[in-house]
# Entry
Amino acid sequence: QLQLQESGSGLVKPSQTLSLTCAVSGGSISSADHSWSWIRQSPGKGLEWIGYVYHTGSTNYNPSLKSRVTMSVDRSKNHFSLNLSSVTAADTAVYYCARNTVAGYYFDFWGLGTLVTVSS
Amino acid sequence: DIQMTQSPSTLSASVGDRVTITCRASQSISSWLAWYQQKPGKAPKLLIYHASSLESGVPSRFSGSGSGTEFTLTISSLQPEDFATYHCQHYNSYPWTFGQGTKLEIK
# Structure
């Protein structure tokens, strides 16, 4: 069974960079049939797709965050990563990693999520 | 961006009830729609994709319908474990967006 597990800094200072990694187990990140996304959910609010990365390293980002987002994949470690720069309090959220199918870009497996708080 | 609007925001119902949640898109998304269930402190779980296809392992009391701009999620007979928040998501074009969620509460 596929499992995804987020890790990274839980507290980030304003203007700094948020960095998270998603470890994939029970499956290969090099699958041609899937891409790998980050999604966030602010306290009491809805879900926001941040972007995805494919095993080749190609990416697609939400335009609302594109200028601050970088995603990458490490096939040797079977994990993918998110960097979000110049964070503010508005970036405080639970961050999820998830798998997309390329047959239709819904999210069929999710990590447990990790809370990131932006505060000085 | 395509805006997804769910109604109602909150729904009170009893075990055994049949309930329907609506999701409307601001423009046509064909059948490129998914539904998720989220319980407090947990990640969303995929229920329905392509508007009406049931994800493997999801009970058959869940069903989805619709195309274009209007979609529904129906639970035919509510079970205690179904009280949760439900989200719709389109994947017609970038950026993919979600509805604001519908909280299903026990009456």
Summary: Chain A has a mean pLDDT of 95. The CA atoms of residues 12 and 118 of chain A lie 5 Å apart. Chain A has no helices and eleven strands.
